[in-house]
């Protein structure tokens, strides 16, 4: 019996050493460790995940139409869906569609999430944009999508990074 126990311990030690060696090899050869290092020179890094929840997204809502109170209406609907609306007002910039959502590299994932809440909204990514996610409401704006509609829209969307950017996680 004593020899059988020693043999079993030797087999267990060999298996443990093999598992440790394989683990070290996998960690050293992991291609995900160098996430942002494969970006082309001059490319703007954008963080594509995690997608922040509405509570963590600050929005500026601006009325680009001559319809009074439109920005307040949209801001109220967005706040009901959990967004942090930091500013509401009017703008001289007009938009013919439903809504124009402007955002930059710092808020890329947040901008995509906010975009999902607007029917036929247009996202406007600007690599130079440093402000918060800004929504400019247009003449075709009716209402903000429900959370379930926005989730469906977001899940169906085929997200492709803008030219000149490099997605990192």
Description:
With 169 residues, the chain is α/β, with parallel strands linked by helices. The chain folds into two domains: 1-32; 47-162, no CATH class. The chain contains four helices and seven strands, in the order H-E-E-H-E-E-H-E-E-H-E. It has helices at residues 2-28, 70-80, 108-115, 147-156, and strands at 44-47, 58-63, 84-90, 99-103, 122-125, 133-137, 165-168. Strand 4 (99-103), helix 3 (108-115) and strand 5 form a beta-alpha-beta unit.
Structural class: alpha/beta
**Shape category:** elongated
Low-pLDDT runs of 5+ residues are none
- Estimated share of beta-strand residues: 15-25%
Tally the beta strands. Answer: 7
**SSE succession:** HEEHEEHEEHE
Query: Helix proportion of residues, in percent?
Result: 25-40%
Spatial strand arrangement across the major sheet: 3-2-6-4-5
Helix count, per DSSP?
4
Number of domains in the coordinates?
A: 2
What integer is the average pLDDT?
A: 86
Fold topology:
Elements: H1 2-28, E1 44-47, E2 58-63, H2 70-80, E3 84-90, E4 99-103, H3 108-115, E5 122-125, E6 133-137, H4 147-156, E7 165-168
Parallel strand pairs: 1-7, 2-3, 2-6, 4-5
Antiparallel strand pairs: 4-6
């Amino acid at each position: 019996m004593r020899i059988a126990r020693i043999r079993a311990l030797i087999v267990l030690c060999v298996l443990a050493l093999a598992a440790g060696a394989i683990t070290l090899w996998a960690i050293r050869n992991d291609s995900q460790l160098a996430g942002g290092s494969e970006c082309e020179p001059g490319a703007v890094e954008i963080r594509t995940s995690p997608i922040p929840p509405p509570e963590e997204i600050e929005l500026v809502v601006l009325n680009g139409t001559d319809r009074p109170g439109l920005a307040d209406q949209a801001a109220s609907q967005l706040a009901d869906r959990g967004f942090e609306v930091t500013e509401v007002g009017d703008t001289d910039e007009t938009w013919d569609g439903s809504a124009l959502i402007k955002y930059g590299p710092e808020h890329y994932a947040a901008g995509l999430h906010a975009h999902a809440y607007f029917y036929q909204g247009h996202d406007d990514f600007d690599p130079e944009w440093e402000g918060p996610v800004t929504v400019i409401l247009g003449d075709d704006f009716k209402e903000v999508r429900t959370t379930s509609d926005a989730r469906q829209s977001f899940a169906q969307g085929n997200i492709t990074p803008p030219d000149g950017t490099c997605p990192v996680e």
